[in-house]
């Protein structure tokens, strides 16, 4: 393992892919720790022509920048060593977060399916409600006068006269 040395922060290139992984809360924690006990773990750098490329230690680098440091403790690694660095997906904390997010997604999908099923059952039960037809007659007719029983219409004048005589009406 190469010996750690100090590198100027301004000469370190951070790949865009790594910049997207910055977590401000981690940077703040590391900066606080660096104020108390200093930098304990060096960052890993790869020499690429005239520039230094960050291999590992993004949050430590950002913490030093936040503290106003101009140099950082780091080690130069070979391209072979940089290639064997654990990939982001292989790191335990990343894998734990991925599993957690997958479980949350599964729970959300199950909840949505249960809600959709409940809504479907309600609509089916509403459409399958027994349909009853009101019985024909004066009681079910809102236009009929209260207390009167509907009579059949007379087909002729003589039928009308007969109805009137039977009901005590005048003609």
Index terms:
single chain, 171 residues, alpha/beta, five-stranded mixed sheet, 6 helices, 5 strands, 46% helix, rod-shaped
Number of helices: 6
| Strands ordered across the widest β-sheet | 1-5-3-4-2
Characterize the overall form: rod-shaped
Question: What portion of residues belong to β-strands?
Answer: 5-15%
What is the overall pLDDT average?
78
Structural class: alpha/beta
Helix content, binned percent: 40-55%
Give the beta-strand count: 5
Alpha carbon gyration radius: 43 Å
List the helices and strands and how they pair.
Layout lengths: L4 E4 L3 E2 L2 H4 L4 H14 L5 E6 L2 E6 L1 H9 L4 E6 L2 H5 L8 H36 L29 H11 L4
Parallel strand pairs: 2-4, 3-5
Antiparallel strand pairs: 1-5, 3-4
Characterise the protein shown here.
The protein contains six helices and five strands, in the order ββααββαβααα. The protein is α/β, with parallel strands linked by helices and 171 residues long. Strand 3 and strand 4 form a beta hairpin.
Report a brief summary of the structure.
The chain has 171 residues and is an alpha/beta fold. It has helices spanning 16-19, 24-37, 58-66, 79-83, 92-127, 157-167; strands spanning 5-8, 12-13, 43-48, 51-56, 71-76.
